[in-house]
C-alpha cells in the first residue's frame, strides 16, 4: 500500500465561516431562553406572552439550529480526500458512496481559489483538470490547500 500524504474532510467552519457561528449563537440563545424563560428579557412583556411561550420558542430555535449544524456536519463528513504516492481518491456520500480516483500522472492543471476569508482560515477551493475544459474534480473548503496543490503537482 502506498503512503498517504494528505487525508482531509472539508471543514464546516471553513465552508460556512459566518453561518456556523451564527447557528451556534442561535443554539445557545435558544437553550438560554428555554431554561430561563422571560428572566432574560429586561423589559416587561405584553400580557398574552407568558413564560411558557418564550420557553417553547427557545426550544424551537435551539432545535432548528442544532438540526442545521448536524446537517452541515454530516455533509462535510460525507466528503473525503486522500492523496497517496500515485493517486488521488475523492469519496462523496453518506449512505451511498461515489468514488473518484485520479492518477496523479494524468493531472493536467490544478486551480486553487482562495478568498480573503479563506486565506485567513487556511482553506481553499481546488479544481483538478485531467483533460478537456471542465474540471474532473471540484472540492470546496479543504484545509491547507497550498500543501495540497504542491502534493498534486509534485508528480
TrEMBL record:
Signal sequence, start to end: none
Domain YdbS-like PH: 78-152
Transmembrane segments: 21-41, 53-75
Record's keyword terms, sorted: Membrane, Transmembrane, Transmembrane helix
Name the record gives this protein: Membrane-flanked domain DUF304
